[in-house]
Amino acid sequence: AERDTIEHGYELSSRQLQGQQQQLQALGKTNAYLKAQLRDIQRSSESAVLAERKKADEEMARVRESLVDVLERERRLMRAQMMKASDRLRTLMEDEADALSEDDGPEFAK
What we know:
Order of helices and strands: H
Structural class: mainly alpha
Radius of gyration: 47 Å
Helix content: over 70%
Strand content: under 5%
């Protein structure tokens, strides 16, 4: 009877140990699967970040080029306006000089 009790206790302990070993194996597999998923998520996240960074860099380059184009256009316009104003001033000065020389001309003739 005592032997039966010991054998029964052994069988019970053995089954419990097997159950715990199976749980441990299942947890190990689940852990490996979750680690693999985490690696995949990290890779895809890094890939997304790199793609967004590349898009942002490209957009910044386009903005920079646009700003340079605008500044160059404005510089050309300002240069053209300065040339026009300079030509107008030169014409006014020449007209003024001509008017003065016409006024002074008869006095020298006297």
